[in-house]
Specification:
The complex is a heterodimer of chains A (500) and B (92).
Chain A: H1 35-41, E1 56-59, E2 68-69, H2 94-107, E3 111-116, H3 127-139, E4 144-149, H4 154-162, E5 166-172, H5 178-181, E6 187-190, E7 193-196, H6 197-217, E8 221-228, H7 236-247, E9 251-256, H8 266-270, H9 277-288, E10 305-306, H10 318-322, H11 328-352, H12 361-366, E11 373-377, E12 394-401, E13 404-412, H13 429-436, E14 442-444, H14 450-458, E15 462-464, H15 472-485
Parallel strand pairs in A: 1-3, 3-4, 4-5, 5-8, 8-9, 11-14, 14-15
Antiparallel strand pairs in A: 1-10, 2-6, 6-7, 11-12, 12-13
Chain B: E1 4-5, H1 14-18, E2 24-25, E3 32-33, H2 49-53, E4 60-61, H3 79-91
Antiparallel strand pairs in B: 1-4, 2-3
The chains are: A alpha/beta (500), B alpha+beta (92).
Chain lengths: 500, 92
């Protein structure tokens, strides 16, 4: 029996004996979803770690107005080097957004999904959002449409959203208790008044829950985003997760708070810290008992274009798209061919992945349980260790344990501009990359130079490049097996001990 | 009497949609209020709508020059801290 790749959902939903290579790919959050939902989301880059290597998404910034204030948001912020959600460089009218979408779809045929995520709340004043959706449903029926919302105005527009080609809505739900909400939302605008504190938070929560229920009733897929704010809603999010699952949300995405003073947000200025990788993982793990968790969110900007983690927005600025002539009927033919080729490639990869017996779970179970080890992987995609350490802008973190191998999440090595001092490359880049790998004991890459090799070792992270061009999960389990045999995995073994 | 929008405005359109008098002008570098149309929402609403949804402190002013959303009133960031930050940024 293979050391299987663990699904991330509650136990009763795990398909028995279904390894990642056999059922929808590496570290896939889709494996445990009902077939009908999987069909809907299998080519949605935001919902599947595998799909995001093949399919691209874009956001169009048509919705500037907002009807609430969140303590992690600053409406004044706009910086080209900044990649937080809610930040954009160029606001579009619906007509411009449609033109941009068609231009991107024609030039990046892998683009399957158009999302409207801000920079304000897309449903606060929904006309611009709905007009964009109306035109795109008509002109580009091969593009999936999504929208994100804080939920306040959702019940009022649910039926109008459903008129369009929309199968996913994301609601950001940070709490179900107004006392917690009052620490996150200083005010909302509701029925022609600004309403502050718990009273405002209570209305917001009621509307979010009502909107969630209405969408589920109408068969629209609902994902719930939550921002994890240590000391404010971290414990509380377990209850949120349980409740939204009960009401029918299909996926819960717990994201870390991003707060730096230079962002000018309440939390940034007041010194509210975000969670570290370990805290985030622990919360995601404890929510996972109740709910399908999303692990690979890259927290994109509201005007991001391209594959997750990359942004090709600069190729599609207003002046550039104005000059483009787009024959979308021809583009659709090309797009269909590209999508079919990708599906085929994924299928081939899945069937070609060797089912090598690595670690027998039965034999592991006979021994005392071994401690889990986090391993970071440098990859360009395709489920293969194929990235040079020095070129990696992000790492995928996996956990190997006596239970198997599971995907934990991505870590950005160049994550977010943290002020002008660090916008330029400098010698601290390596130490910053190492800091993002905190908690990992192994780093697998295709190649690595000597200086970073030594620096990683010194930081207690074992660099491994023997598995260049090998499948990720198999390699992770092989390294784990080697460590097991070398006696490094006893529960008592010191965490982070470097390898001789 | 009319309200006015000053330079702190971030052009987010929120006020435009809620104004009962269609007094908001989509102008650059920031939105403006048509003083001839603005009624300060008297007779329509208890509070001026633009100032009730505006997310930016000191962006909308009354005719007497006082801000409808003074410093610190929307974000909850203590005013001394805000002033400190303003000073820091002007020193740079």
């Amino acid at each position: 029996m293979d050391l299987k790749v663990l699904e991330t959902s509650g136990g009763e939903q795990v398909k028995k004996g279904c390894s990642a290579s056999g059922c929808g790919g590496t570290d896939d959050q889709l494996g445990h979803l009902p077939e009908e939902i999987r069909q809907k989301v299998h080519n949605h880059p935001c919902y599947s770690e595998q799909a995001h290597h093949y399919f691209a998404r874009m956001h169009v910034a048509v919705a500037p107005a907002c009807n609430i204030q969140c303590n992690y948001c600053n409406r004044k912020y706009d910086c080209a080097n900044e990649s937080r959600p809610g930040v954009v460089s160029e606001l579009l009218t619906p007509d411009q957004a449609v033109k941009k979408t068609l231009a991107v779809a024609a030039n990046i045929p892998q683009m399957t999904v158009l999302g409207i995520a801000g920079p304000g709340d897309p449903l606060a004043q929904p006309e611009r959002t709905l007009e964009t959706f109306r035109q795109l449903s008509e002109k580009a029926p091969d593009i999936k449409l999504c929208v994100s919302t804080n939920g306040l105005n959702l019940p009022n527009v649910v039926d109008r959203i459903c008129e369009h080609n929309i199968d996913h809505v994301t609601i950001t739900i940070n709490c179900v208790d107004p006392k917690v909400g009052a620490k996150i939302y200083p005010w909302i605008f509701w029925k022609n008044r600004r309403i502050r504190g718990e009273k405002g938070a209570r209305i917001l929560i009621e509307q979010q829950q009502k909107g969630l229920e209405m969408l589920v009733e109408r068969g629209v897929l609902v994902k719930v985003n939550s921002v994890m704010i240590p000391g404010v809603n971290d414990e509380h999010l377990k209850e949120v997760s349980r409740i939204v699952k009960e009401k029918g949300a299909f996926l819960h995405n717990v994201m870390p708070l991003i707060a730096e003073e230079e962002h000018g947000t309440y939390y940034g200025i007041m010194g509210q810290r975000g969670p570290n990788a370990k805290e985030l993982q622990a919360l995601q793990d404890s929510c996972a008992g109740d709910m399908n968790m999303m692990r690979h969110c890259r927290q994109c900007r509201a005007d991001a274009v391209g594959l997750l983690g990359e942004d090709r927005g600069a190729e599609f600025t207003l002046d550039k798209i104005e000059a483009m002539e787009i024959d979308y009927d021809a583009a659709m033919v090309k797009r269909a061919a590209v999508h079919a080729a990708i599906e085929e490639e994924i299928q081939t990869k899945q069937t070609a992945t060797p089912n090598v017996v690595t670690v027998s779970i039965d034999s592991l179970k006979k021994k005392k349980p071994t401690r889990p080890v986090l391993m970071a992987v440098a990859t360009k995609g395709g489920g293969i260790i194929n990235q040079h350490f020095g070129h990696a802008t992000e790492f995928l973190v996996y956990e190997a344990s006596s239970e198997g191998v599971r995907f934990i999440g991505p870590r950005r090595a160049d994550q977010y501009c943290v002020g002008q001092d660090t916008c330029n490359e400098d010698e601290s880049t390596l130490s910053r990359v190492i800091a993002t790998l905190e908690g990992c004991e192994v780093m697998l890459s295709a190649r690595i130079g000597l200086p970073p090799y030594e620096a990683l070792e010194e930081a207690g992270i074992q660099p491994v490049s023997e598995y260049a061009m090998e499948p990720i999960e198999e390699s992770v389990s092989k390294v784990y097996q080697e460590w097991l045999e070398a006696g490094k995995l006893d529960e008592s073994a010191e965490m982070g001990a470097s390898v001789a | 009497m009319a309200l006015s929008i000053e330079t702190a405005c971030v052009n987010c359109f929120a006020c435009m949609e809620v104004c009962p008098s269609e007094a908001i002008i989509e102008a650059k570098p920031h939105f403006m209020i048509d003083a001839k149309k603005c009624s300060e929402c008297e007779g329509d609403f208890a509070d001026p709508q633009c100032a009730s949804i505006c997310p930016i402190e000191e962006a909308i002013f009354a005719a007497d020059g006082s801000p409808l959303n003074p410093l610190g009133s929307l974000t909850g960031i203590p005013v001394p801290r805000l002033l400190e930050l303003v000073q820091q940024s002007t020193r740079l």
